[in-house]
Write a structure and sequence with these properties.
globular, two-stranded antiparallel ribbon, 434 Repressor (Amino-terminal Domain), 4 domains, about 500 residues, 17 helices, Rossmann fold, alpha/beta
Amino acid sequence: MKNKLLTDRAALFLGDAARVDAVLAPNSIDAIVTDPPAGIGFMGREWDSDKGGRDAWVTWLADVMRKALYVLKPGGHALVWALPRTSHWTATALEDAGFEIRDVVLHLFGTGFPKSLDVSQAIDKQKRNMDEVRLVTRWIAEMRDLAGLTNARIDAAFGHNGMAGHWTTQGAQPEVPHAAHWPKLLELLGIDELPETIREITERLVAEKGKPGPNWFRRAITGHHEMASPVQRWIARHGHRANLSNGARRDEPATDAAREWAGWGTALKPAVEHWILCRKPLMGTVAANVQQWRTGGLNVAACRIPHASPEDLSASKARNPGRAEPVTSAVYGASRPQQRIDESGRWPANVTLDEAAAELLDAQAPGSGASRFFYVAKPTRTERDEGCTHLPFRSGAGACGRKEGSAGMNSPRAGATSGGGHNHHPTVKSIALMRWLCRLITPPGGAVLDLFAGSGSTGVAALAEGFEFVGIERDSDYVEIANARLRHELGPEAETAQTNMG
């Protein structure tokens, strides 16, 4: 493992988290705050693949966390990030590694981009050509087998992650390769040209790509939205040229099937992430463990939600939580600038609020703040880039590994969490959030470990809270970003840091 940054308070390593036990002594770390992959293939990134399926992914993370358990002090806590849809994988891996699952901290935010599919529109967009598509994918699968290839080898040849499965399946989501893919695919299969029947079908299907079925054009247009589409607003917010006219149409279903499913979607608006709270088994009682190792407890008093006065409450009752009103944050506290819910008129779809219960609690305990929405927003571009302005700037979806001019360059679904910048990491966490998490589980003067350091947000937060920090990251580009951010936080102290990339 290669050391990039080393001071008395911070160490950053370029390498694999599974080798943490090779660079740290047993029982030497006080707390772990880390953001591992979720196993969903985020933006097609290899590092977020599912490793071959649920069991393989759980085994992989359990092996990493077992090494982390070795360097963590008895009674030491870990806060491990997870997405709701695979958080059960993460929790299982932590438990298999030997951690005790204690709780889940929920990070609520109002800036997630909805990725829901309109079921009614999808029905009217159908092309009814799946039989022909599967005819082509069946042929590709047969030629693959004759050539002695695997889907993994085909994916590797194209730099894809799972696309070959769509090209060869007879199940759900079959896909005919684009015209640009066919020359290389035929070369891999050892075939000079397509059979006439397959060629004719393929040319027609490729020409129809991106075009809806005939029923789409029968949908009655009833007007246009008052605002630009969410896609265009997202593009504009992230510094790209966008069409902010109210051109998005309102329409009505064209078929009985589409009318039956009008108003239905496929996903909730992203509004929450999990931080699984777990603990290394204690050595004896809590009292004995805390006195010997200084670990085993949670710093509850330093992480309480600030008390709200009745006057404050009257200014921001929960009548309409989607309104842009001042909101007290459990992370920023009363002495920091108040956060605002900036999704005008929209409440995150997977967060519910019982207004009657909130009003009752306020009546029973005036000033308790029961009706407030406590949350911390995602980081701004300014926060992401702090300390990194000397690094190359990467714009928009280009920061997600997409080529300039490609269809995905301005797609919010391709990289909804990366607006580009000098810090081009796609999943940067808020410093305020990470400070709160570090503060909750780390004893004064303790050392925080991040096994998946990314752009270094945990390290910046840990140093800001007065803790020591050890980070491990396997991507050299991200290590450069983390190094810059950590040096910025350390200030003059970083000038004496040793740099040893050999």
